Amino acid sequence: MNWQKQMKELKYSHLERTAPAFFAASGGRSMKLKPYNDKTANGLTRCIIDFLTFSGWQAERISNTGRMIDRRHTVTDVLGRKKQIGSMEWAKGTGTAGTADISATIAGRSVKIEVKIGRDRQSTAQSSYQKKIEASGGLYVIATNMQDFIKWYYLNFKTETYKQSTISERPF
Fold it and tell me: Least buried of 2, 127, 145, 146, by fewest C-beta within 10 Å?
C-alpha cells in the first residue's frame, strides 16, 4: 500500500473512532477526503502531523518566526504631497534558534522532526539544536518525503498504531 492510501485509511479510522456520528453522516469510507501531498514543506508537515496524530500520538507544528515592525509614517511636504518615510524592521522571534518544524511525543519519547524539501539544507543553528536533542535522549529526524518518514517511523517504533485506552480502562 502506498503512503497516500495508508494516510487515507488512517484518517478514516481516526474519524470513525473519534467522531462516529460525523463519520456515519458523512458517508463513512466513501467520504471525499482532501488528498495528501509531500511536494512542499507545508504539505509534508501536514502529512507527518496527521500521520502521527491518526496513529494515536501527539504532534504539533512549531513556529519560531519573528514579526515585522512598521516604523514608517506619512508626511506632507510644503507643496501638499504625501510621502512615506521610515522602514519596516524584522524583530527576531523569542523561540530557540534552530528549533525543529514539528515536535512530537511517540511512545513516551520526545521526537523533533525537521522538514526539508528540495535544495533546502540544515542550518548551523539547526545542527546544533539536533545535537542538543540527541544528547538529552530525544530523537531527531530530517524528513525529506513521506515515504522515508514512514520507513523511519516503523524502524524506530515497530508498531502499527497506538491503541488508545478508553477512560474506563485508565487506572486513575
Answer: 2
How far, in Å, CA of 4 to CA of 2, rounded?
Answer: 6
C-alpha cell at 8: 487515507
**Could you tell me if 130 and 140 are in contact, meaning their C-beta atoms sit under 8 angstroms apart?**
yes
Q: Report the C-alpha gap between 41 and 119 in whole angstroms.
A: 12
d(CA 123, CA 129): 10
Question: For the chain, which residues score pLDDT lower than 50?
Answer: 161-172
- Encode pLDDT of 23-67 as tens digits: 999 999 999 999 999 999 999 999 999 999 999 999 999 987 778
- The answer to whether 60 touches 49, Cβ cutoff 8 Å, is yes
